[in-house]
Structures are given as structure tokens and as C-alpha cells.
Write a structure and sequence with these properties.
0% strand, isomerase, 3 helices, Chorismate_mutase-related, Chorismate Mutase Domain, subunit A
Length: 103
Amino acid sequence: MFTAPDPADCQTMTEVRDGVDEVDRRVVELLARRFAYMDAAARIKPTRDVVRDEARKAEVKAKVDAEAMRLDVDRALCDRLYEDLIETSIAHELKRWETLHGG
């Protein structure tokens, strides 16, 4: 549940900014959780060569695209953001895998 007013109910720029700040805090919180899953994947995957999974990457991007379409969010923007997020996640997971498994 959000504490800031719904965007449609905002009457002042202070309310808008409070809402944006709250969303940003939640996005960072969700990113921390996503990267914790990357840490778990690095712990679970038996070999370094299975960290990069192009089929899974395509699956994630397809799901994101479907959700963007459903919510009427700029699909090209989501594609760019997720391309960067996935590649950053892979790099993070590879580094974590090497730390955990001595690679």
C-alpha cells in the first residue's frame, strides 16, 4: 500500500514528488531483492558456464513486454531498461559465482 496519494488525486507538486520518491524507494528495494535472487542463483548453479542463459533472458524480456503492453507502459523503454538490468544481473551473478566457487 502506498502512503502517497494516487497520481490522479495529486493536487500539488509536493504530492507528486512525494509519490515519485516513494516509488523510487520501492524500486530500489525491489532491485535489492532481485539481486539477492542473483546471489542465490550463483550459489545454486554448479558451473560458471550456466550463468548466462539466453533462453531465460528471452523469456524474461517477453514476460516484461507482455506486462508493459497490459499496463500500457512504453514497451521500448521497458525493453531498454530490462536489457541493461539483465546484463547487469548476469555480470553480478558471474562475479558472485566466482567468489563463491573460486572461479
